[in-house]
Amino acid sequence: MKIGHAAVLCALAAGACLAADAVRPPHHGPDGFRNLDPDYKQKTGEDVRRWRRERADKNLPEPDSYRFELADNDPAFLHVNRTQPTATWIGHATVLLQAGGFNVLTDPEFSDRSSPVQWAGPKRVVPPGIAIEDLPPIDLVVISHSHYDHLDAGSIRALRRRPGGERTLFAVPLGLAAWFRGIGVDNVRELDWWESTSLGTLSLTAVPAQHWSQRTLWDRNQTLWAGWVLAVPGFRAYFAGDSGYSPLFREIGATLGPFDLALIPIGAYEPRWFMQANHVSPEEAVFVHRDVRARRSIGIHWGTFVLSDERLTDPPAQLAEAMQAHGVPPEEFLILKHGETRVLDAMATDVPGA
Q1: Confidence of residue 1 (pLDDT cuts 50, 70, 90)
Q2: What mean pLDDT comes out for the span 224-236?
Q3: What is the mean pLDDT of the chain?
Q4: What are the two backbone dihedrals, phi and then psi, of residue 84, each rounded to the nearest 5 degrees?
Q5: Is pLDDT of 3 > 70?
Q6: What is the pLDDT, as a whole number, of residue 22?
Q7: Is the overall model pTM greater than 0.85, yes or no?
Q8: How crowded is residue 176: how many other Cβ atoms within 10 Å of its Cβ?
Q9: Integer Cα distance of 123 and 136 in angstroms
Q10: Cβ count within 10 A of residue 317
Q11: Domains, the chain, ranges and CATH?
Q12: What gap in Å lies between CA 105 and CA 129, rounded to an integer?
């Protein structure tokens, strides 16, 4: 059952806002949503300007200098597979997850740029690991938050236009359903943290994250951010979206874990003074892997767009160092090539023909 929202309660009677304040969840603020950590501080415009000044002196590699090898993907296998749990990293935070006969897509980003326009903004350094037209029919899309590298209008429209796209369910955090309906997507459900819904035998729960949201100059934190837990009989997965490191991960693991698979971000973490509150480092990703009690994890949110100050090749190397330092075996936390598919109950090998 959904938690009552302040706007609904206030509309019932003149004094209802008092009742609304009494039942408002702690992450619901008077002017939008907020993080639970009392020490969390939103970055200011001056912080952004300082970061840009410091970045100009770092001599970072040009985006065109990166060369990432695409996996030899097998879309035909993905189209017919209905029995084997698989994960295919398409790039950035976009993963095709197959489990229980369902095809699920996380934060679909297939455009050339992570930007409100396609003539400016961060440009892809490697094409999507699977072209959008080569995807199998998508049953469910989960969205973690409204930032452009996680919510891309062109990709959403393209998924909706695919044959059968009107049947694809889009699950989004609170406040985002109106945006989807505004671009012609009506099969959308929005959830608050810890709320659940279902699609046949697939259950879906929105879980907390430490992050923020914004798409325009006027809508900061007006929509919620979240991770997602997906469960089908015999298989349970966690998609972290974007988050800074916090006790929330242990709560998620204790409440809904353990997980057969966790999709954990490992990129966009430098400089730490600027990114730490909202993005985990590779070492913190190892902590997340353990906190949520994942049997295996896959690193996402790296190697696709230049969004921060670490080199795009740094996250896998630093993850490997952190795993060794903290005694996590290599087979527990995987790095995939763009487009690589792994069968999750036989993680040592790729799919047949790949």
Answers
A1: very low
A2: 97
A3: 91
A4: -95, 125
A5: no
A6: 58
A7: yes
A8: 25
A9: 26
A10: 13
A11: 6-52 (no CATH), 63-343 (3.60.15.10)
A12: 13
What is the strand order of the sheet 188-191 is part of? Answer: 188-191, 169-173, 140-142, 102-106, 94-99, 86-91, 341-343
Amino acid of residue 8: V
pLDDT tens digits, 65-96: 999 999 999 999 999 999 999 999 999 999 99
For 235-270, how does the pLDDT look when each residue is reduced to its tens digit (9 = 90+)? 999 999 999 999 999 999 999 999 999 999 999 999
The pLDDT-based confidence of 116 (bands split at 50, 70, 90) is confident
Residue length of the chain:
354
Round the CA-based radius of gyration of the chain to a whole number and report it.
20
